[in-house]
Amino acid sequence: MAYGSKVLDHYENPRNVGSFDKADPTIGTGMVGAPACGDVMKLQIRVNDQGVIEEARFKTYGCGSAIASSSLLTEWVKGKTLEEAGQIKNTDIAEELALPPVKIHCSVLAEDAIKAAIADYRKKTGKDENVNAA
Ligand code: FES
Ligand code: FES
């Protein structure tokens, strides 16, 4: 099965690979695994005091679609509020990358990872209540 060109682009030139210091209070870390295949994705966001994501980094131990999904996600969340980033759906990622049905769970991993990173940041900062300033 051939990968689509957008998947290949992100797979061969992944954006924002790396990690931030987990202990930094401006960083939210999401670490999730895919039960279907055992792959693991770590996604981190750096958030400013307006609740806007300034940067994201990822490390993914997984297939090309999982790497491409996380790479795309780090680009999408940049400049978004936590609220907005939390609304990104795996189906948006799958559609953008034209993932075939057997690879949909790879994009689910990315959605789970950003949600986990946001939850971690909120928990750390105790900002659960006041991030919805829309
Ligand atoms: Fe490992 Fe799909 S089987 S990423
Ligand atoms: Fe499992 Fe891609 S994350 S096959």
TrEMBL record:
CDD domains per record: IscU_like
GO cellular component: cytoplasm
Coiled coil location: none
Pfam families named among the record's database cross-references: NifU_N
Record-linked InterPro entries: ISCU, NIF_FeS_clus_asmbl_NifU_N
Top-level division of the source organism's lineage: Bacteria
Protein name: Iron-sulfur cluster assembly scaffold protein IscU
